[in-house]
Specification:
Elements lengths: L5 H19 L2 H5 L6 H31 L2 E2 L8 H17 L5 E5 L5 E7 L2 E7 H6 L2 H16 L2 H31 L8 H41 L3 H11 L32 H10 L3
Parallel strand pairs: 2-4
Antiparallel strand pairs: 1-2, 3-4
Helix pairs in contact: 1-3, 1-8, 3-7, 4-6, 6-8, 6-9, 7-8, 9-10
């Protein structure tokens, strides 16, 4: 289960910190002072649910640079012909996609690449040294097209919105269950007691895991769209098909879990497939081969 999204883990962690902080400030007691205030709970759930995902999104680009040790290439002073080609290729693809030219970075590691950032016109595309060494220029171009397509499709923002929606349900349902357990099972006279707080924390963890399955499902769908986007930007599906076939014979490098979903490859098997951010390589190749146009 290596490809469970770190974006989700960071997001859940932020939610739990917010929950604990607001509980200390007495917000939970306010929600249950005169029975469960559903309207106030709905507003509270929206605020907490979207705060976690938005913070994760805004942190994605600096976190990516820090955690991989990615070195951003100065477009005006690249270190050698390879870096010049890399920057020129990403910029050409970005121009075709109609987005601002992203920062381009290289990091040491096994084959992988990723794109991240909160804004289409201020994103980051990073490629590992392993990918550059193991692929032809055409295949690397296809991978870069895939990452630029992610940016052009607004995938990080869409993922954030979906995560915010599922977070809202997680926060809301966790407190409803907490209230029921506190009042009807434990029969506490005071609302918002330790039973309520403990149940909320446990439910947020359990519901958060279930919500991750929904977000991972969407993440897999966007990989198909990015593959198709690469084919469109390069004017042919063959380079992306060859790049995927090459990736199928490699061991992709691990990315930090906060932005694993942004990587080019990585699919789990068995039960872990429910949480995988990427579909299997063979399914992606089949989808490209069967695509119209």
């Amino acid at each position: 289960m290596k490809r469970i999204v770190l974006f989700l883990a960071t997001n859940i962690a932020v939610m739990l910190v917010l929950t604990a902080t607001l509980s200390i400030l007495g917000v939970n007691r306010f929600l249950t002072a005169n029975g469960l205030d559903i309207q106030a709970l709905a507003i509270f759930s929206l605020v907490v649910g979207f705060t976690g995902s938005i913070i994760s999104l805004l942190m994605s680009k600096p976190m990516a640079k820090w955690s991989t040790g990615a070195r951003v290439i100065d477009p005006n002073a690249p270190n050698g012909a390879e870096e010049q080609w890399l920057v020129d290729t990403v910029h050409q693809l970005a121009d075709r996609a109609g987005i601002g030219r992203p920062e381009v970075a290289i990091y040491e590691g096994e084959p992988n690449a990723f794109a991240t950032g909160a804004f289409k016109n201020d994103a980051l595309v990073a490629v590992s040294t392993g990918l550059l060494r193991g692929m032809t220029e055409e295949e690397v171009s296809a991978v870069l097209g895939h990452e630029v397509a992610h940016i052009a499709n607004g995938d990080m923002v869409t993922l954030t919105l979906i995560q915010g929606v599922v977070n809202t349900f997680v926060v809301f349902l966790a407190r409803v269950v907490g209230y029921v357990v506190d009042q009807m099972v434990l029969k506490n006279e005071r609302s918002g007691g330790i039973g309520y707080f403990a149940t909320v924390i446990v439910c947020e963890l359990v519901f958060g895991i279930l919500a991750s399955i929904i977000v991972a499902w969407f993440s897999r769908l966007r990989e198909y769209r990015a593959d198709a986007g690469s084919a469109y930007l390069l004017g042919s599906r063959e380079p992306m098909i060859r790049a995927l076939a090459r990736l199928g014979g490699m061991e992709p490098g691990d990315l930090p879990k906060s932005f694993e979903a942004s990587g080019i490859a990585g699919a789990a098997k068995g039960f872990g497939a429910l949480f995988a951010s990427h579909p299997p390589i063979e399914q992606r190749i089949r989808a490209l081969m069967n695509a119209k146009g």
